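The authors assume throughout that readers already know how a fold can be written as discrete tokens. For illustration, here is how one protein appears when written out as sequence plus structure tokens.
>
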Amino acid sequence: MVQKKKQIPKIQHFVPQFFQRFFSFENNGKTIGMFETNRNVFKSHVKISSHLGKKYFYGRDGELEEWLAKLESDSAPIFREIWEKEKLPIPRSTNHFKILHFLIVLDIRNPIHFKILKNFEQKLLNTKSKISEGNISANMIPGLQEQQSDKGKLRSLKSAELLVPDLLNLKYKLIKNKTSNPFIISDNPLIMYNQFLEKETGNLAAKEILD
């Protein structure tokens, strides 16, 4: 019996399609508006199936893509229920844990995360000083390179679950938009917020990295 070849998606999304559909044009679930900041161009209808993804970004063997697909299939019904009932899961419940896990992975899986690793690697290679010389581990640069490989990405994402218990004590709220202006989403939709910088100037408390 000939074994059927596994179909690996060519376009692998770093922002899940189910998540994009909550921001789709007139809730059609198929297209989404897009503003290209580098070109100052707005497109009202872009196919979600080809948006916010890259060719084989998570590898050609399908291992990481399958792992992410499983995470998304577990998370999608929870977000759908929140959207329909306008109610968050009970704090510290299983669904609360799953939401936090999904959001951590959403951050780590983004191309910007791997770009930061690459930039740091290049800075280490290009920086020579009395301070850095002899103080950088011989394993540091190979370690950064390994984290950017397909296997390294998979290990990093799987370890994200270990961070969830540290976040369970944080209170969380659901924001409902009652205006005529729709919410928007970016190519890196997780916002980092530091309440300890609330009184600082320059809007340092909230930070959203846009590619």
